[in-house]
TrEMBL record:
Cited InterPro entries: cNMP-bd_dom (IPR000595), cNMP-bd_dom_sf (IPR018490), RmlC-like_jellyroll (IPR014710)
Organism: Pontibacter burrus
Lineage: superkingdom: Bacteria
Name of the protein in question: Crp/Fnr family transcriptional regulator
Domain Cyclic nucleotide-binding: 15-115
Pfam families: cNMP_binding
Length: 193
């Protein structure tokens, strides 16, 4: 169950077999069925989830019941409401499975234990957070400066697996577009081919 987790960890920060066993003792496996929640808005986020198999999304719902997708996570990625996880305040995101999923959870207490006793884990988390921040900054710049067609092209080139596995209305939401606008963009692009 932990193969991909340790493969990705070792790509960033190599672990000894002993360190791997030490970490494994604190990890929690979890399976979700498609559409099942990992986290609901208002609950306290108690885990960071690493996706071994499947796809998830984090999103908010506004007062008009419109969903706004914040993040997707597929195999090898992590997902959480980091604010809630770190502060123990109520979550602002919902996280649910877009496909049946197998996850590896790192609880807050395990996270704290690793930070104290395993410097390699701290390095790994720093690299994950740095990568996430860079991706967020690129997404923000893209949404502010690129035309819809350029944004969609960038998304499909950067995340081809997600583009194939996630419904178009969720991709539109992630990009800050209406489904109708994304449909027009895709039609225009197809007509040019």
């Amino acid at each position: 169950m932990y193969e991909l987790f340790f493969q990705k960890f070792n790509e960033k920060v190599p672990l000894t077999p002993e360190e791997q066993e030490q970490i494994k003792a604190y990890l929690t496996p979890k399976k979700l069925r498609k559409r099942q929640y990992l986290l609901q808005e208002g609950d306290i986020c108690k885990s960071i989830a690493f996706v071994e198999k499947g796809a998830l999304r984090a999103y908010t719902v506004d007062e008009n019941m419109n969903e706004h997708v914040i993040q997707f996570a597929i195999e090898g990625w992590t997902i959480s409401d980091l604010f809630s996880y770190l502060t123990a305040e109520p979550a602002t995101y919902n996280i649910d499975a877009l496909e049946d999923a197998e996850l590896v959870l790192i609880t807050r207490s395990a996270h704290e234990e690793f930070l104290k006793n395993l410097p390699k884990y701290e390095t790994y988390i720093r690299l994950l957070i740095t990568g996430a921040y860079i991706a967020l900054q690129r997404r923000l710049t893209s949404n502010l400066s690129l035309l819809a067609e350029e944004r969609y092209t960038s998304f499909t080139e950067t995340y081809p697996d997600i583009a194939q596995r996630v419904p178009q209305h969720m991709i539109a939401s992630y990009m800050g577009l209406t489904p109708e606008t994304l449909s027009r963009v895709r039609k225009k692009m197809a007509d040019r081919r």
